[in-house]
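Give me the fold.
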Amino acid sequence: MKPGQELAEITAGIDLLYRLEQEGEGFLDAEGLIPVAVAPVEARIFGRYSQAREALAKLAERLERDAESELRRDYLFEMIDSLEALMDTFEGKPIGFAERLRRQIRVDTTVIGDDVLGTYRATIRAGLDEMGYRDGDLAADLARWEADTIVPRDAVIPTLEDLLWQSRQRVAAVMYDFSSEWMEPVGVTQKPFAAYCDYPRRKVLLNLDFPYTVYALKHLATHEAFPGHLVHLGLRERYVADGTMPLDGAQVVTSSASSTLFEGIADNGMAFLDWLDTPGDQVAVALQRLRSALRCNAAWMMHEEKKTIEEIVPIIAAQGYQTTETVRGRLAFLHHDLRAPFVYAYWCGDAAVDAVWKQVPPAERKRFWHYLYGTMHTPTTLARYWR
Protein backbone atom coordinates (compact mmCIF):
# COMPACT_ATOMS: atom_id res chain seq x y z
CA MET A 1 0.00 0.00 0.00
CA LYS A 2 1.26 3.48 -0.85
CA PRO A 3 2.11 5.74 2.12
CA GLY A 4 -0.53 8.33 1.21
CA GLN A 5 -3.33 5.76 1.19
CA GLU A 6 -2.09 4.23 4.42
CA LEU A 7 -1.93 7.62 6.15
CA ALA A 8 -5.42 8.51 4.90
CA GLU A 9 -6.90 5.27 6.22
CA ILE A 10 -5.19 5.64 9.61
CA THR A 11 -6.28 9.29 9.90
CA ALA A 12 -9.85 8.35 9.04
CA GLY A 13 -9.68 5.69 11.77
CA ILE A 14 -8.46 8.23 14.31
CA ASP A 15 -11.28 10.56 13.26
CA LEU A 16 -13.82 7.76 13.72
CA LEU A 17 -12.52 6.93 17.20
CA TYR A 18 -12.46 10.63 18.15
CA ARG A 19 -16.08 11.08 17.04
CA LEU A 20 -17.20 8.00 19.01
CA GLU A 21 -15.68 9.44 22.18
CA GLN A 22 -17.09 12.97 21.81
CA GLU A 23 -20.01 13.96 23.99
CA GLY A 24 -20.57 17.50 22.71
CA GLU A 25 -23.30 18.37 20.24
CA GLY A 26 -22.05 21.75 19.01
CA PHE A 27 -21.05 22.76 15.49
CA LEU A 28 -17.34 22.13 16.06
CA ASP A 29 -17.93 18.75 17.72
CA ALA A 30 -19.91 17.61 14.68
CA GLU A 31 -16.96 18.42 12.41
CA GLY A 32 -14.73 15.83 14.03
CA LEU A 33 -11.06 15.65 13.17
CA ILE A 34 -11.77 15.50 9.41
CA PRO A 35 -14.47 18.07 8.53
CA VAL A 36 -14.11 17.52 4.78
CA ALA A 37 -12.92 14.63 2.60
CA VAL A 38 -13.07 15.04 -1.18
CA ALA A 39 -12.68 11.33 -1.94
CA PRO A 40 -13.86 8.17 -0.18
CA VAL A 41 -11.39 6.72 2.32
CA GLU A 42 -11.87 3.39 4.08
CA ALA A 43 -11.19 4.02 7.76
CA ARG A 44 -9.05 1.64 9.78
CA ILE A 45 -10.95 0.39 12.81
CA PHE A 46 -9.20 1.12 16.10
CA GLY A 47 -10.52 0.22 19.52
CA ARG A 48 -8.07 2.57 21.24
CA TYR A 49 -5.54 5.21 20.29
CA SER A 50 -2.58 2.95 21.07
CA GLN A 51 -3.54 0.85 18.05
CA ALA A 52 -3.48 3.94 15.84
CA ARG A 53 -0.07 4.84 17.26
CA GLU A 54 1.22 1.39 16.33
CA ALA A 55 -0.07 1.81 12.78
CA LEU A 56 1.59 5.23 12.47
CA ALA A 57 4.87 3.88 13.82
CA LYS A 58 4.90 1.11 11.20
CA LEU A 59 4.19 3.65 8.47
CA ALA A 60 7.00 5.90 9.71
CA GLU A 61 9.45 2.99 9.59
CA ARG A 62 8.75 2.53 5.88
CA LEU A 63 8.96 6.16 4.77
CA GLU A 64 12.68 6.27 4.03
CA ARG A 65 12.14 3.41 1.60
CA ASP A 66 8.62 3.96 0.28
CA ALA A 67 8.03 7.73 0.13
CA GLU A 68 7.81 8.98 -3.45
CA SER A 69 10.24 11.86 -2.84
CA GLU A 70 12.17 13.67 -0.11
CA LEU A 71 9.36 16.22 0.07
CA ARG A 72 6.76 13.49 0.61
CA ARG A 73 8.97 11.79 3.19
CA ASP A 74 9.39 14.99 5.18
CA TYR A 75 5.73 15.98 4.89
CA LEU A 76 4.51 12.55 6.00
CA PHE A 77 6.90 12.51 8.97
CA GLU A 78 5.52 15.88 10.09
CA MET A 79 1.93 14.76 9.56
CA ILE A 80 2.50 11.59 11.58
CA ASP A 81 4.01 13.57 14.46
CA SER A 82 1.09 16.01 14.41
CA LEU A 83 -1.37 13.11 14.69
CA GLU A 84 0.62 11.71 17.60
CA ALA A 85 0.38 15.08 19.36
CA LEU A 86 -3.34 15.28 18.62
CA MET A 87 -3.88 11.87 20.18
CA ASP A 88 -1.99 13.06 23.28
CA THR A 89 -4.67 15.72 23.70
CA PHE A 90 -7.49 13.26 22.99
CA GLU A 91 -6.16 10.94 25.70
CA GLY A 92 -5.59 13.76 28.18
CA LYS A 93 -1.82 13.29 28.30
CA PRO A 94 0.24 16.28 29.49
CA ILE A 95 1.35 18.40 26.54
CA GLY A 96 2.10 22.12 26.72
CA PHE A 97 0.55 24.66 24.40
CA ALA A 98 3.88 25.61 22.83
CA GLU A 99 4.52 21.93 22.06
CA ARG A 100 1.06 21.64 20.51
CA LEU A 101 1.86 24.59 18.25
CA ARG A 102 5.24 23.15 17.30
CA ARG A 103 4.07 19.60 16.67
CA GLN A 104 0.46 20.04 15.50
CA ILE A 105 0.59 23.34 13.60
CA ARG A 106 4.35 23.01 12.86
CA VAL A 107 5.29 26.54 13.97
CA ASP A 108 7.63 27.90 16.63
CA THR A 109 5.54 31.06 17.07
CA THR A 110 4.29 31.72 20.60
CA VAL A 111 3.51 35.38 21.38
CA ILE A 112 3.54 37.73 18.39
CA GLY A 113 5.43 40.76 19.64
CA ASP A 114 4.99 44.50 19.38
CA ASP A 115 7.74 44.67 16.74
CA VAL A 116 5.47 42.80 14.34
CA LEU A 117 2.22 44.38 15.50
CA GLY A 118 3.84 47.79 15.15
CA THR A 119 4.55 47.25 11.44
CA TYR A 120 0.85 46.59 10.84
CA ARG A 121 -0.12 49.73 12.76
CA ALA A 122 2.38 51.75 10.73
CA THR A 123 0.86 50.49 7.47
CA ILE A 124 -2.62 51.30 8.75
CA ARG A 125 -1.50 54.77 9.80
CA ALA A 126 0.08 55.49 6.40
CA GLY A 127 -2.98 54.26 4.51
CA LEU A 128 -5.40 56.27 6.62
CA ASP A 129 -3.27 59.38 6.14
CA GLU A 130 -3.32 58.86 2.38
CA MET A 131 -7.11 58.57 2.40
CA GLY A 132 -7.52 61.70 4.52
CA TYR A 133 -8.25 60.09 7.88
CA ARG A 134 -5.56 61.94 9.82
CA ASP A 135 -6.98 63.59 12.91
CA GLY A 136 -4.02 62.20 14.83
CA ASP A 137 -5.36 59.35 16.97
CA LEU A 138 -5.03 55.99 15.21
CA ALA A 139 -7.94 54.35 17.01
CA ALA A 140 -10.29 57.24 16.24
CA ASP A 141 -9.19 57.56 12.61
CA LEU A 142 -9.53 53.83 12.04
CA ALA A 143 -12.96 53.76 13.65
CA ARG A 144 -14.12 56.59 11.37
CA TRP A 145 -12.78 54.80 8.26
CA GLU A 146 -14.43 51.51 9.25
CA ALA A 147 -17.71 53.31 9.92
CA ASP A 148 -17.52 54.88 6.46
CA THR A 149 -16.90 51.52 4.76
CA ILE A 150 -19.20 49.30 6.83
CA VAL A 151 -21.79 47.38 4.85
CA PRO A 152 -25.36 47.61 6.19
CA ARG A 153 -26.53 44.28 7.61
CA ASP A 154 -29.22 43.80 4.97
CA ALA A 155 -26.67 44.41 2.20
CA VAL A 156 -23.94 42.09 3.49
CA ILE A 157 -25.03 38.93 1.64
CA PRO A 158 -25.67 40.71 -1.72
CA THR A 159 -22.30 42.47 -1.42
CA LEU A 160 -20.51 39.21 -0.69
CA GLU A 161 -22.30 37.59 -3.62
CA ASP A 162 -21.06 40.33 -5.96
CA LEU A 163 -17.50 39.99 -4.64
CA LEU A 164 -17.63 36.21 -5.11
CA TRP A 165 -18.67 36.77 -8.72
CA GLN A 166 -15.82 39.26 -9.28
CA SER A 167 -13.23 36.97 -7.67
CA ARG A 168 -14.42 34.00 -9.74
CA GLN A 169 -13.84 36.06 -12.90
CA ARG A 170 -10.36 37.02 -11.76
CA VAL A 171 -9.45 33.43 -10.93
CA ALA A 172 -10.58 32.30 -14.38
CA ALA A 173 -8.53 35.04 -16.02
CA VAL A 174 -5.19 34.39 -14.31
CA MET A 175 -5.27 31.06 -12.42
CA TYR A 176 -7.82 28.28 -12.99
CA ASP A 177 -11.13 28.17 -14.81
CA PHE A 178 -13.69 27.52 -12.08
CA SER A 179 -16.46 29.35 -13.95
CA SER A 180 -18.78 26.37 -13.54
CA GLU A 181 -18.38 26.40 -9.74
CA TRP A 182 -20.20 28.64 -7.28
CA MET A 183 -20.44 29.20 -3.54
CA GLU A 184 -23.80 30.50 -2.37
CA PRO A 185 -23.45 33.00 0.51
CA VAL A 186 -25.82 32.25 3.39
CA GLY A 187 -26.28 34.36 6.51
CA VAL A 188 -26.14 32.60 9.90
CA THR A 189 -26.01 33.74 13.52
CA GLN A 190 -24.67 32.46 16.83
CA LYS A 191 -21.88 30.41 15.28
CA PRO A 192 -18.27 30.07 16.55
CA PHE A 193 -16.81 31.54 13.35
CA ALA A 194 -17.00 34.62 11.13
CA ALA A 195 -17.21 32.68 7.87
CA TYR A 196 -17.12 29.00 6.93
CA CYS A 197 -16.63 27.17 3.64
CA ASP A 198 -19.20 24.38 3.40
CA TYR A 199 -17.53 22.74 0.42
CA PRO A 200 -19.83 19.70 0.04
CA ARG A 201 -22.93 21.92 -0.19
CA ARG A 202 -21.09 24.75 -2.00
CA LYS A 203 -22.13 27.40 0.53
CA VAL A 204 -20.28 30.17 2.34
CA LEU A 205 -21.79 30.59 5.79
CA LEU A 206 -21.35 34.17 7.00
CA ASN A 207 -21.97 35.06 10.63
CA LEU A 208 -24.19 38.14 10.60
CA ASP A 209 -23.54 38.79 14.29
CA PHE A 210 -20.35 40.63 13.25
CA PRO A 211 -19.97 43.90 11.33
CA TYR A 212 -18.18 43.81 7.96
CA THR A 213 -16.55 46.46 5.84
CA VAL A 214 -16.57 45.98 2.08
CA TYR A 215 -12.85 45.20 2.36
CA ALA A 216 -13.45 42.47 4.95
CA LEU A 217 -16.02 40.88 2.64
CA LYS A 218 -13.55 41.05 -0.23
CA HIS A 219 -11.05 39.14 1.91
CA LEU A 220 -13.67 36.53 2.82
CA ALA A 221 -14.72 36.05 -0.82
CA THR A 222 -11.14 35.22 -1.79
CA HIS A 223 -10.42 33.22 1.37
CA GLU A 224 -13.48 30.98 1.40
CA ALA A 225 -13.96 30.51 -2.33
CA PHE A 226 -11.97 32.07 -5.21
CA PRO A 227 -9.02 31.32 -5.13
CA GLY A 228 -9.18 30.03 -1.55
CA HIS A 229 -10.85 26.97 -0.09
CA LEU A 230 -13.27 26.22 -2.95
CA VAL A 231 -10.55 26.29 -5.59
CA HIS A 232 -8.02 24.51 -3.36
CA LEU A 233 -10.40 21.69 -2.46
CA GLY A 234 -11.73 21.46 -6.01
CA LEU A 235 -8.21 20.97 -7.34
CA ARG A 236 -7.35 18.44 -4.64
CA GLU A 237 -10.52 16.51 -5.49
CA ARG A 238 -9.54 16.56 -9.18
CA TYR A 239 -5.91 15.59 -8.54
CA VAL A 240 -6.75 12.73 -6.15
CA ALA A 241 -9.27 11.38 -8.66
CA ASP A 242 -6.77 11.35 -11.52
CA GLY A 243 -3.96 9.93 -9.37
CA THR A 244 -1.62 12.92 -9.48
CA MET A 245 -2.10 13.57 -5.73
CA PRO A 246 -1.90 10.81 -3.07
CA LEU A 247 -5.06 9.90 -1.19
CA ASP A 248 -4.11 11.79 1.98
CA GLY A 249 -4.61 14.97 -0.07
CA ALA A 250 -8.34 14.24 -0.01
CA GLN A 251 -8.60 15.00 3.71
CA VAL A 252 -8.83 18.30 5.57
CA VAL A 253 -7.43 17.43 9.01
CA THR A 254 -8.07 19.96 11.76
CA SER A 255 -5.15 21.29 13.85
CA SER A 256 -2.66 19.11 11.99
CA ALA A 257 0.53 19.65 10.03
CA SER A 258 -1.55 20.40 6.93
CA SER A 259 -3.64 23.17 8.54
CA THR A 260 -1.19 26.06 8.25
CA LEU A 261 -0.82 25.90 4.48
CA PHE A 262 -4.55 25.23 4.04
CA GLU A 263 -5.35 28.56 5.69
CA GLY A 264 -2.27 30.34 4.35
CA ILE A 265 -3.22 29.68 0.74
CA ALA A 266 -6.68 31.10 1.38
CA ASP A 267 -5.38 34.18 3.21
CA ASN A 268 -3.18 35.08 0.22
CA GLY A 269 -6.09 35.04 -2.22
CA MET A 270 -6.20 38.78 -2.87
CA ALA A 271 -2.45 38.88 -3.46
CA PHE A 272 -2.66 35.99 -5.96
CA LEU A 273 -5.32 37.92 -7.89
CA ASP A 274 -3.46 41.26 -7.81
CA TRP A 275 -6.55 42.66 -6.10
CA LEU A 276 -4.76 44.97 -3.67
CA ASP A 277 -5.12 48.12 -5.72
CA THR A 278 -6.24 50.88 -3.32
CA PRO A 279 -4.99 52.39 -0.03
CA GLY A 280 -8.11 50.89 1.55
CA ASP A 281 -6.97 47.41 0.50
CA GLN A 282 -3.57 47.98 2.10
CA VAL A 283 -5.17 49.17 5.34
CA ALA A 284 -7.59 46.24 5.32
CA VAL A 285 -4.86 43.61 4.84
CA ALA A 286 -2.71 45.10 7.61
CA LEU A 287 -5.74 45.29 9.90
CA GLN A 288 -6.71 41.71 9.13
CA ARG A 289 -3.16 40.55 9.91
CA LEU A 290 -3.05 42.62 13.12
CA ARG A 291 -6.29 41.10 14.38
CA SER A 292 -5.25 37.61 13.27
CA ALA A 293 -1.99 37.96 15.22
CA LEU A 294 -3.89 39.19 18.27
CA ARG A 295 -6.17 36.15 18.17
CA CYS A 296 -3.01 34.03 18.38
CA ASN A 297 -1.92 36.03 21.43
CA ALA A 298 -5.38 35.53 22.93
CA ALA A 299 -5.01 31.78 22.51
CA TRP A 300 -1.61 31.94 24.20
CA MET A 301 -3.05 33.91 27.11
CA MET A 302 -5.86 31.40 27.53
CA HIS A 303 -4.02 28.11 27.11
CA GLU A 304 -0.50 28.92 28.30
CA GLU A 305 -0.95 31.79 30.76
CA LYS A 306 -4.35 30.47 31.94
CA LYS A 307 -6.04 33.86 31.77
CA THR A 308 -9.82 33.94 31.72
CA ILE A 309 -11.80 35.16 28.73
CA GLU A 310 -12.93 38.10 30.89
CA GLU A 311 -9.28 39.13 31.30
CA ILE A 312 -8.37 38.53 27.65
CA VAL A 313 -11.22 40.25 25.81
CA PRO A 314 -10.57 43.88 26.86
CA ILE A 315 -6.85 43.55 26.12
CA ILE A 316 -7.39 42.21 22.60
CA ALA A 317 -10.25 44.64 21.93
CA ALA A 318 -8.06 47.63 22.77
CA GLN A 319 -5.04 46.40 20.82
CA GLY A 320 -7.14 45.45 17.77
CA TYR A 321 -9.49 48.45 17.76
CA GLN A 322 -12.64 46.35 18.08
CA THR A 323 -15.60 46.21 20.44
CA THR A 324 -15.50 43.72 23.28
CA GLU A 325 -18.64 42.06 21.88
CA THR A 326 -16.98 41.40 18.51
CA VAL A 327 -13.78 40.13 20.11
CA ARG A 328 -15.66 37.81 22.45
CA GLY A 329 -17.50 36.32 19.48
CA ARG A 330 -14.34 35.93 17.40
CA LEU A 331 -12.60 34.09 20.26
CA ALA A 332 -15.47 31.67 20.94
CA PHE A 333 -13.81 28.65 19.31
CA LEU A 334 -10.70 28.95 21.51
CA HIS A 335 -12.61 27.03 24.20
CA HIS A 336 -12.76 23.96 21.92
CA ASP A 337 -9.76 21.80 22.78
CA LEU A 338 -9.22 20.36 19.29
CA ARG A 339 -9.36 23.87 17.81
CA ALA A 340 -7.27 25.59 20.50
CA PRO A 341 -4.01 25.83 18.48
CA PHE A 342 -5.78 26.13 15.11
CA VAL A 343 -5.98 29.93 15.27
CA TYR A 344 -2.22 30.03 14.66
CA ALA A 345 -2.75 28.36 11.28
CA TYR A 346 -4.19 31.62 9.93
CA TRP A 347 -1.50 34.12 10.88
CA CYS A 348 1.41 31.68 10.52
CA GLY A 349 0.03 30.26 7.28
CA ASP A 350 -0.45 33.72 5.80
CA ALA A 351 3.16 34.57 6.70
CA ALA A 352 4.55 31.26 5.39
CA VAL A 353 2.89 31.56 1.98
CA ASP A 354 3.52 35.30 1.71
CA ALA A 355 7.25 34.83 2.36
CA VAL A 356 7.57 32.46 -0.61
CA TRP A 357 5.07 34.29 -2.85
CA LYS A 358 7.15 37.48 -2.65
CA GLN A 359 10.06 35.59 -4.22
CA VAL A 360 8.07 34.21 -7.17
CA PRO A 361 8.61 36.22 -10.38
CA PRO A 362 5.50 36.83 -12.52
CA ALA A 363 6.66 34.36 -15.16
CA GLU A 364 6.76 31.58 -12.52
CA ARG A 365 3.37 32.21 -10.92
CA LYS A 366 1.42 29.49 -12.74
CA ARG A 367 4.08 26.91 -11.92
CA PHE A 368 4.07 28.05 -8.30
CA TRP A 369 0.28 27.80 -8.01
CA HIS A 370 0.32 24.30 -9.51
CA TYR A 371 2.99 23.31 -6.97
CA LEU A 372 1.23 25.01 -4.06
CA TYR A 373 -2.30 23.77 -4.71
CA GLY A 374 -1.29 20.34 -5.97
CA THR A 375 1.12 19.31 -3.20
CA MET A 376 0.53 18.78 0.50
CA HIS A 377 2.82 21.03 2.53
CA THR A 378 3.76 22.30 5.95
CA PRO A 379 5.47 25.68 6.48
CA THR A 380 8.77 23.81 6.69
CA THR A 381 8.41 21.82 3.49
CA LEU A 382 7.16 24.78 1.43
CA ALA A 383 10.15 26.90 2.42
CA ARG A 384 12.57 24.01 1.92
CA TYR A 385 11.45 22.57 -1.38
CA TRP A 386 10.10 25.42 -3.50
CA ARG A 387 12.79 26.58 -5.90
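Strands lie at 36-37, 184-188, 195-198, 203-207, 251-252.
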